[in-house]
Write a structure and sequence with these properties.
heterodimer; A: alpha+beta; 8 helices; 16% strand; globular; B: alpha/beta; TIM Barrel; 2 domains; eight-stranded parallel beta barrel; three-stranded antiparallel β-sheet; 10 helices; 15 strands; 31% helix; 21% strand
Chain lengths: 168, 325
């Protein structure tokens, strides 16, 4: 599944600092809930990882050693050591380990460039961390946490099986 | 027959146990095992927790210590065996005769399996390892036909384990030097075949180009499923033809022949894929478990679910069914 233009286009209008603030809030919360996420990276923790959703007008740069994520316009993507490009939903599925990275790569739905060793280390680190975005993001919503968690899980169940269905 | 399943991380280990593995095989996070990829494998504490989890669910844990020791650095491999035994591994999977000798002498009660990396593929070789090191099982290389396996089973005095699904190594494992030739690193000595440090993918027009070291391995046209950048599955110009010199980018699947393997005397079926993610492990192990319980007629439909998870999105029965060119 690709992100519908009606959802992607508004991101062109929202200032980067605003998108970045929201992204950093989620990133920092995920890191708090999964403190060992980057332990498996070893020497690759100092690398710069790019995540470039092909269906969004922005890309994300993750710097594990600095515990930092930044957001960039497509026209102004930063230099990276390793980068992965694919649909936003696919990238989220990989982040959670719900999709097999090799299978998505074989299908050509994903492109990986740069330092393969670093990207492989990150893939394996993410795969072991059991990130659950509905649960992780939901807990940010205070009293509305159960509602957000349920809604996010519902959205995931609708989009991920379709994506996974291409190879399952 | 036992179902032996891969795990590269603790999360994948739990998925394999939950999906019905009889045994899960894994390795330490260093060059003592043949899947020494970045971010993969187990610390001592992780292995301890994994073995405890497996025991709670009645699943065995096999620890692969299946690279070859380097002179002067034997301690690394000896400690791996010491720790695997101490932590309660149900079996250690070894390739190096020196390490087998160490294990047999120090831990005579420890169950020892001969790794596919030992390249033991005939009765004399296998029986030597059984008699000398008390090996209880041999994992056969993927170069034998099913009749070959049946003949071997009648002549050896240990259990047989064979690969039935996953990545297909077409060479006599433990003796292949292709990765070493291209990169200086091999699964035999360093635990890595076609190491990621030497792999590069790049777009060239509408083609995806895969490179290993200084070699172009393949150019995949738009829409063609991709594969791993290994020399044995590279597409090369040979004389006037361009094609796969050794093997296509495909995975192994011999589940159609599982009854023949049982009749041949095979005790355990192995799934390859310690380098794959937990989603792959969960899906493959659960499908294989269902396939083993199903009638032969129902198996192809079940297993076909896995084809798109495979390298090149295709599978082959490889040398098991001698239709190889």
């Amino acid at each position: 599944m690709t992100v519908p233009p009606a959802m992607a286009v508004p991101l062109r209008l929202i200032p980067i600092p605003a998108i970045e603030r929201a992204t950093r809030l989620v990133f920092s919360h995920v890191m708090t809930r999964h403190p060992g996420l980057f332990d498996r990276l070893g020497e690759h923790a100092g690398k710069r990882y790019g995540f470039f959703p092909s269906d969004l007008p922005v890309g994300f740069l993750v710097e594990p050693a600095k515990n930092r994520i930044s957001v960039h316009r497509k026209a102004d993507l930063p230099a990276t050591d390793a980068a992965v490009t694919g649909g936003f939903v696919l990238l989220l599925g990989l982040l959670e380990g719900r999709l097999d990275g090799d299978a998505v790569f074989f299908s050509r739905d994903l492109t990986v460039t740069g330092d393969m060793e670093a990207m492989l280390a990150l893939r394996n680190a993410l795969d072991d961390c059991n990130i659950d975005l509905p649960s992780d993001v939901g807990s940010l919503a205070g009293p509305f946490a159960p509602l957000v968690r349920r809604a996010a899980a519902e959205i995931r169940s609708r989009v991920l099986p379709k994506e996974a269905g291409q190879w399952n | 027959m036992e179902l032996i399943c891969p795990a590269g991380t603790p999360a994948a280990f739990r998925e394999a146990v939950d999906a019905g593995a009889d045994a899960v095989y894994c390795g330490f996070r260093d060059e003592t095992n043949a899947r020494n990829f970045p971010g993969l494998n187990f610390s001592r504490d992780e292995l301890k927790a994994a073995i405890a989890y497996a025991r709670q669910h009645g699943t065995m844990t096999f620890v692969a210590i299946n690279t070859f020791m380097r002179a002067g650095r034997e301690k690394l491999w000896h400690e791996a065996v010491d720790d695997a035994v101490r932590l309660g591994a149900d079996a250690v999977i070894l390739a190096d005769f020196g390490l087998m000798a160490y294990t047999a002498e120090r831990y005579p009660d420890q169950r020892l399996h001969v790794s596919v990396q030992a390249s033991a593929a005939n009765a004399d070789a296998v029986n030597f390892l059984v008699e000398t090191f008390r090996a209880k099982r041999v994992v056969l290389p993927r170069i034998l036909t099913i009749p070959d396996i049946a003949r071997l089973a009648r002549q050896i005095r240990c259990e047989i384990e064979v690969f039935v699904f996953g990545g297909l190594c077409v060479m006599a494992e433990g003796r292949c030097s292709l990765s070493s030739y291209a990169t200086g690193k091999s699964p035999n000595m360093n635990g890595v075949c076609s190491p990621a440090s030497h792999v590069r993918y790049r777009e060239d027009g509408r083609e995806l180009v895969s490179e290993l070291g200084d070699y172009t391995i393949n150019r995949f046209p738009a829409g063609e499923a991709a594969g791993y950048p290994t020399l044995c599955k590279g597409r090369f110009n040979v004389a006037d033809e361009r094609g796969y010199a050794f093997e296509d980018p495909v995975s192994l699947d011999v589940m159609d022949h599982v009854d023949l393997l049982r009749e041949a005397g095979v005790s355990a079926l192995k799934i390859e894929g310690r380098q794959r993610g937990k989603a792959y492990v969960a899906e493959v192990v659960s499908v294989m478990r269902r396939a083993l319980a199903a009638n032969a007629a129902d198996r192809p439909a079940l297993i076909s679910r896995l084809r798109l998870l495979s390298e090149g999105q295709r599978t082959t029965s490889g040398a098991y069914e001698k239709r190889w060119r």
